[in-house]
Amino acid sequence: MKKIVEIRNLRKTFCKGDICVANSLNLHLFEGEIFTVLGTSGSGKTTFLRMIAGLEKPDSGEISIDNRIVFSKNIDIEPNQREVAIVFQNYALLPHINVASNILFGSNATKKELEDILEKTKLKGHEDKYPHELSGGQQQRVALARAIINRPKILLLDEPLSNIDTELRNILRAELKEMIKSLNITALFITHDKEDAFFLSDRIAIMHGGDILQVGTSKEIYNNPADLYCAKFLGKVTKIDEKSYIRPENINICENAEREGVIKDIIFYGSFYEITVLSNNQNLLVHSFDDNLKIGQKIKLSFGNKILKF
Question: Do residues 170 and 293 share a domain?
């Protein structure tokens, strides 16, 4: 597959070098993929996006977009010349102009190109409306249409699903993925939300303290985390012994197992029960669908072959 973005040894520090927000980062994005950088607040993910866009200047390293170097020791291409587009958290739509004018803002696109993008983003018939007359999904499509009308090499998405209630978020997330995939756009998505990352991404990079800790598909990084931080960041883990951990859903309650324990607590989460089991002086978390388990009940546990070693 063709590499659209290549990042080599990218480094950025703030506060006179005291805080490293990008520590010799190396990544590549393939044509047509949705690549997510997933991390907590302060992990460096937004600075990473802004360096690709040209809004932050790295201290060192190299950025290439479609085989063209846009940043290196002697090169620093202006943001408007990098062939990138950004969709921000709040969509940044101009309230006093209609949909068509919002999409064309800052663009030299033709009328035919506008009609084409309206069709592709399912906005045809809404071009004369103003932002306040649109639904949340329609506003997102306007922001996306404005970003892609000039056919950027890469679309940068800066947490566009943040601060949205759960029901609307699920709808917008599905629409966003459908549009990006139907248009065959290469996209870099920045988020702190694991569910968004898993839903949208072809590949995910976990970022922490300015470092990329792991890159892979959602299945790869969840089932085979690079370290204990990645394991805990992506979901709950329970400790078996000094160096062994397991996810609660991978512990089985069965009569023939050797490990014994006593149920100390049961929490109902709708689709499953989370059970705290005291075993060998350790509290183990177990996920179960059994409605008949009781606090104080003695049970036996089997760990299977999905034990994580760190």
Answer: no
Sequence-distant (≥ 6) Cβ neighbours of residue 17 within 8 angstroms = none
The residue range of the domain holding 174 is 3-83+152-229
Q: What is the largest CA-CA distance in the chain?
A: 72
DSSP sequence for 40-87: -TTSSHHHHHHHHHTSS--SEEEEEETTEEEEETTEE--GGGS-EEEE
Per-residue pLDDT at 106: 84
Average pLDDT over residues 14-39: 87
Is 199 inside any structural domain?
A: yes
> How far is the C-alpha of 281 from the C-alpha of 230, rounded, in Å?
26
Average pLDDT over residues 254-265: 92
Q: Of the candidates 262, 267, 256, which has an alpha carbon nearest to the alpha carbon of residue 282? A: 262
**CA 306, chain centre distance (Å):** 25
pLDDT at position 89: 78
Q: Going by DSSP bridges, is the β-strand pair 244-246/308-309 parallel, antiparallel, or unpaired?
A: antiparallel
Tokens found for residue 42? 């302060």
Q: Is residue 175 part of a domain?
A: yes
Question: Model confidence over 213-235: pLDDT tens digits?
Answer: 999 999 999 999 999 999 999 99
Q: What is the DSSP letter of 131?
A: G
Q: Average per-residue pLDDT in the chain?
A: 92
Cα–chain center distance at 28: 16
Q: What is the dihedral of CA 86, 90, 93, 99, to 10 degrees?
A: 90
Model pLDDT, residue 15: 65
Q: How many domains does the chain have?
A: 2
Q: How far apart are CA 42 and CA 206, in angstroms?
A: 13
Rounded Cα distance, 70 and 73, in Å: 10
